[in-house]
Design a protein that fits this description.
10 helices, alpha+beta, Glutaredoxin, 8% strand, binds glutathione, Glutathione S-transferase Yfyf (Class Pi), Chain A, domain 2
C-alpha cells in the first residue's frame, strides 16, 4: 500500500488545500503537525528551499508547494478529479486558481495587515479582484462548474479565512451587496460536508489572529 504523509500546520489554508483533496479522493494519510518556531529536521530536509508546510510525501518522495501537491494528488488518484480533462478547461482552471492565490489572497491579506496609504491601495486591489471573481461565478455554482475544482480549493482562503480576518480587524471587504455571486459561492462551499469536516475550528483561528493583530 502507498505510503502517504503530510507535514502540516493547524489552521494553514495551504495545508487545508491538500487535506481537502486527500479527503475528496478518499486517500488515507498520516498527518504530522509541525512547529513553525522550531521546525523539524524532516521539514528542513524535505523543503530546504522554502522551509514551509505543506510537505507531502508519497512513498518517501517529497513534494512541496500546495498547488503542485494538489495537482500531483489529482494525477495519481484519479477518482473525483479536481481538474478537467479538456486541455483548454484545464488551463482555465489553473488560471483562476493562480489568480485567486496570487492576486486576491495577497490583496486581502495586505488589506488587513497594512496601514494608511498602503492599506487603501490593497483594499482597492482586493475590491477589483473580488469583482472579477464575482463575475466569473455569475452562472456557476463553483469555479469548477457543478462540483468543487482546483480554483474552489485554492479559494478556501476567501471562503473561510477572509471572514475571520475581516471580523477580527474590523476591515470589511466581502459584502452581499457588492459581491452577491461570491457570497453565494462562499455559502455553498462552506456547506459542503467534506469541506466542513476538514476546516479548522473558527474560534481557534480567530484567537490566533487576534493575538497577532494586537
Ligand atoms: N506557497 C506556499 C505557501 C505555504 C506557506 O506559506 N506556509 C506557511 C504556513 S501557513 C509556512 O509554512 N510558514 C513558515 C514560514 O514562513 O517560516 C504553498 O502554497 O504551499
Amino acid at each position: 500500500m502507498a505510503q502517504v504523509k503530510l507535514h502540516g500546520l493547524y489552521g494553514s489554508p495551504f495545508v487545508h488545500r491538500v487535506e481537502l483533496v486527500l479527503k475528496l479522493k478518499g486517500v488515507e494519510y498520516e498527518y504530522i503537525e509541525e512547529d513553525m518556531v522550531n521546525k523539524s529536521s524532516l521539514l528542513l530536509k524535505y523543503n530546504p528551499i522554502y522551509q514551509k508546510v505543506p510537505v507531502f510525501l508519497h512513498n518517501e518522495k517529497p513534494i512541496v508547494e500546495s498547488l503542485e501537491i494538489v495537482e500531483y494528488i489529482d494525477e495519481i488518484w484519479k477518482g473525483n478529479p479536481i481538474l478537467p480533462q479538456d486541455p483548454y478547461d484545464k488551463a482555465m482552471a489553473r488560471f483562476w486558481a493562480k489568480f485567486i492565490d496570487y492576486k486576491c489572497r495577497s490583496a486581502i491579506w495586505n488589506s488587513i495587515w497594512s496601514k494608511g496609504e498602503e492599506q487603501e491601495k490593497a483594499k482597492k486591489e482586493a475590491g477589483e479582484a473580488l469583482k472579477i471573481l464575482d463575475n466569473e461565478l455569475k452562472d456557476k455554482k463553483f469555479f469548477g462548474g457543478d462540483k468543487i475544482g482546483l480554483a474552489d480549493i485554492v479559494g478556501n482562503f476567501i471562503a473561510f479565512w477572509s471572514g475571520i480576518l475581516e471580523e477580527m480587524s474590523g476591515v470589511t471587504l466581502i459584502t452581499e451587496d457588492k459581491y452577491p455571486n461570491l457570497c453565494r459561492w462562499i455559502a455553498e462551499y462552506l456547506n459542503c460536508s467534506i469541506v466542513k469536516e476538514s476546516l479548522p475550528d473558527r474560534g481557534i483561528i480567530f484567537s490566533y489572529f487576534q493575538a497577532r493583530y494586537q
